[in-house]
Design goal:
Elements: H1 3-11, E1 22-29, E2 32-39, E3 44-48, H2 59-65, E4 70-74, H3 93-103, E5 109-114, H4 116-127, E6 132-138, H5 149-165, H6 167-175, H7 187-198, H8 203-206, E7 229-234, H9 239-251, E8 256-260, H10 267-270, H11 272-285
Helix pairs in contact: 2-11, 3-4, 5-6, 6-7
Length: about 300
């Protein structure tokens, strides 16, 4: 199914309505296409999904934020409705995010990401700090902090099963990952996760991914982050991710740290009301875009 048809089918599904009219589109970038959605008016907030998932994971946050903010969410290269990518063309997810904001003429935004999405927005903030009003890192990946043994082994298992036994086996293994242990105890959340993983094309597992590593590594320059930062992690997330969040909170100057009670890795799905209030509280404390020194809309990120 073409990307635009996939996006239309997905946004038309029951229960997906959010506050205000949503605009959807597809941005063509070298080697890929990025399906995106924009909802609401006001200061820009960008939401970036976790690995194997897609923009649908943010439904409850979009509904909460759209009455006051211009909320942008999209499927990263190789995920969801963005579909497959050209394995011969190098890219970075941070560069794709930059291209999307340029396309939407957004000069400055608050970036929020969960897990893999946290890694993406962290890299983007380091690449173009003047364009970032604030940064919300939710159960974020921080490369350089080891994964705990069980989580690392389960990560490898999903990729190995996808290569050896096919994509359905890889998806099943990913849904069984310890990251989703508490989410699996909530039937509605488990069903939502399964629907998203069922749409994951799996190319990162089964083919060559030409993603380029950013330099310097984020863990080496965390102290350079000068924008306001929120770090949040689930009380029952796996040990490796709790440590990643602890490192982020310790080393990013002035970072606000929040442990989300009663949640595992998928805090925005497991405790949506708490996460919604965390995000709006963080956004309300930020200086205005003008006070923060937003540049002209045609300013470009360093990629």
């Amino acid at each position: 199914m073409p990307v635009d048809e996939m996006e239309a089918a997905r946004t038309a599904r029951p229960g997906a309505a959010v506050q205000g009219a949503a605009t959807t589109g597809v941005l063509v970038v070298p080697g890929a296409r990025l399906a995106y959605e924009v909802t609401g008016q006001g200061p820009a907030v960008v939401l970036v999904h976790g690995f194997g998932l897609d923009m649908r994971m943010w439904d409850q946050q979009v509904e909460h934020l759209a009455p006051r903010f211009r909320v942008v969410r999209y499927d990263c290269r190789g995920f969801g409705a963005s579909g497959p990518f050209d394995p011969a063309i190098p890219y970075t997810h941070a560069g794709d995010l930059a291209a999307l904001l340029d396309h939407l003429a957004i000069g400055q935004a608050v970036l929020a990401g969960l897990s893999f999405g946290g890694r993406v927005v962290l890299q983007a903030a380091l690449a173009g700090p003047a364009r970032v009003r604030g940064l919300a890192l939710l159960d974020a990946v921080l490369d350089g902090v080891p994964w705990d043994h069980d989580s690392g082994a389960a990560l490898d298992d999903a990729a190995q099963r996808a290569r050896a036994s096919g994509l359905l086996a890889g998806r099943a293994s990913w849904l069984a990952h310890p990251l989703f242990a508490t989410a699996r105890q909530r039937p509605a959340v488990a069903s939502h996760l399964a629907a998203m993983v069922a749409g994951y094309p799996g190319q990162h597992w089964t083919g060559h991914d030409p993603h380029q590593e950013t330099q310097p590594q984020p863990i080496d320059v965390l102290e350079d982050l000068a924008m306001p930062v929120l770090v949040a992690v689930g009380e029952f997330d796996v040990p490796g991710f709790r440590e990643m969040s602890a490192v982020l909170a310790r080393r990013i100057p002035g970072a606000r740290y929040q442990l989300v009670s009663g949640a595992g890795h998928m805090i925005n799905l497991e405790q949506p009301a708490i996460v919604n209030e965390l995000l709006t509280g963080f956004l309300d404390r930020l200086p205005s875009a003008a006070a923060a020194g937003a540049g002209p809309e045609d300013e470009r990120w360093n990629r």
